[in-house]
Amino acid sequence: MFDAELDRELQRRQSIERDLHSAIKTRSLGPWFQPIVKLDTGAVIGFEALLRWSHPIHGAISPPEIMTAARHTGMLELLTQTVFADCCVLIDGLVKAECRDLRVAMNVSPRELEAGDIDDMVLDGLAAKGLPATMFEIEITEESPVDPDRVDEKLGRLSHAGIAIALDDFGTGFSTLASLKDSRIRKVKIDQGFIRGLARSREDRLLVKTVIDLGRSLGIEVMAEGVETEADRQTLHKLGCRTAQGFLFSKAMPLSQALDMAVKQHAKAL
Q: Are the CB atoms for 164 and 135 separated by under 8 Å?
């Protein structure tokens, strides 16, 4: 039986996949940068690269949908290279503006790290441009890799070079609190699902407090994602969380605006 809704979804997916390569090349698809801030002062301490694409027909395409289309069309490597290139441009701008205490983070899935040469791309790319590895950060999801040892080896190379490794969307995948003590992870980002409504949920507060306390004992930074209300910001601060990102502080912005924000903050601090 013909299903009109399924047909529309198929047509939409095919349209997105068909237009993906052109969007990457023309830069209508690419990373914007969301500030990461200190909870107490709101001072910017870094940026996360987030994919943005306003499709001429379908409007805003979500990052997960973009990544799925890139995998289906064999363009994931090109997309990753594009994001990394913009991260390098931002880092270079920060270095020239004497903002060396800020970091720029990029998302990578364990399976992408496992299958490709992202570690070589990152290390060679930073070295070729003379950029400090300590200003770059890799965020990996809790997706379970097929070959954990290979992923750990690659993360080890990146970590040894000075690149920070963060676990993104913590609480949504396969990781456990106990596993953190034996990993390369130096930062944990608590998924926004546990942050929204935090002030009203005793269970979420207990979970977040447990992660924060354990992170502190292991020397791991714990950060909150998706902070949207002042009530949640205050609750997180009381629980001991020190850094966060979310619409309460700022939405993602084009590279030039992110650099301008960092430069203005640096100028005020002088």
A: no
| One-letter identity of residue 27 | R
- Answering whether pTM is above 0.90, one says yes
Buried b (16+ CB within 10 A) or exposed e, 258-270: bbebbbebbeeee
Domain region containing 231: 31-269
Q: Are 191 and 223 in contact (CB under 8 A)?
A: no
Sign of the dihedral defined by the CA atoms of residues 106, 160, 71, 142, in that order: negative
Task: Spell out the residues 6+ positions from residue 208 whose beta carbon is closer than 8 angstroms to its own.
Answer: 190, 194, 195, 198, 224, 236, 239, 241
Question: For the chain, what is the domain count?
Answer: 1
Q: For residues 239 and 205, is the Cβ–Cβ distance under 8 A? A: yes
Write out the chain's pLDDT in tens, 270 residues.
Answer: 557 888 888 999 999 999 999 999 999 999 999 999 999 999 999 999 999 999 999 999 999 999 999 999 999 999 999 999 999 999 999 999 999 999 999 999 888 888 889 999 999 999 999 999 999 999 998 666 667 788 889 999 999 999 999 988 776 655 555 556 657 888 999 989 889 878 788 998 998 999 999 889 888 999 999 999 999 999 999 999 999 999 999 999 999 999 999 999 998 876
Task: Please report whether residue 55 resides in a domain.
Answer: yes
Instruction: Please give the Cα distance from 83 to 88 (Å, whole number).
Output: 9
Q: Give the strand pairing for 29-38 and 243-244.
A: antiparallel
